[in-house]
ABC transporter substrate-binding protein (Pararhodobacter aggregans), 382 residues
Amino acid sequence: MNTHKTLALAALLAALGAPAALAQIRIGATLAETGPAGALGDPEARTLRLLVEQINAAGGVLGEPLELVLYDDGGDPNNARTFATRLVEHDEVVAIIGGTTTGTSLAIRSVAEEEEIPFISLAGGIEIIDPVQPFTFKTPHTDRMACEKIFEDMQAQGIARIGMISGTDGFGASMRTQCLSVAEAYGITVAADESYAPGDADMVPQLTNIRNTEGLQAVLNPGFGAGPAIVTRNYRQLGIDLPLYQSHGVAGQAFIDLSGAENAEGVRLPGTALLIADQLAGDDAQREAVVAYRDAYVGRYNEPVSTFGGYAHDALAILVDALTRNGEADPDPVDLREAIEATSGLVGTTGIYSFSAEDHLGLDLSAFRLLEIRNGGWTPVQ
């Protein structure tokens, strides 16, 4: 019998009770709603708006309504730092959710740590929470974990020699470093190592170099945004007949749409239970949370959910749970931070979170699901 707390925010709301009073609990967010990371930040922002409305309709938190103060940083770290400072000093929020990208998360982190206010990042870079910073947490799996999940699958298939083409953005560069650092442990040799800039519109030269490297058995593309879709299209144009792996940085319908379903067919990547909601077993610990969020999001916006919106869902749920356990509508930041750190067995769309003083991610590798794109949709790899 599952003893985990079921996080589905729809279920959590009923426990928060009490009619809303006039005071408000302000939660801050700075996200890349627009710009190169807009495909990630837009569903994050939509998710926060939707869930705050749901929470308030159900009575708020500790009898108080939530107020979401949200800025669009466009994925620019300087903007993110400015908005984080504004959220703390002017808007007086109790915590910050955001940092769509690794770069913006690191910028926000510098403010959060200096101002000593809880911050929950939505980005993948391991350096956000390693080494642990007192006030900084995050909801997505790390890029190192993504490498490990991919290499596990390669190892199982006898793949030992690969090519890699990575974005030079913060996420792509970080994941490349992490993959190189763990490859040997899985018996993987990176025999071709190419890169591309965020604004590049054609990766044919780099992929041609990879195609011409002898003995490759697969190709891995650490990256996010439009770059991996261009890589996928160029990959098919060049007729490269090797398995192609992408990162969790593109685990959403937008990647399939940008790549073209026929080009993305067969691509594998680590993702979350959210992308295969209807394929989860009835006793899957995450099913209730995943389906509740999926149905609410699709019902409101009439578009598919993405992994990235799920990161925002989990961040808000973690914060609401901590606020509720702390018991103060105007919490001391240190007390709220400690409440977040005490989170245990909280079921989200991304995984089941249990933080500690040494672990501000709270997920292990089992939270990842290895997925394959088939017929324009997601299928779990058995």
The chain has 13 helices and 14 strands. The domain at 143-277+368-380 is CATH 3.40.50.2300 (Rossmann fold).
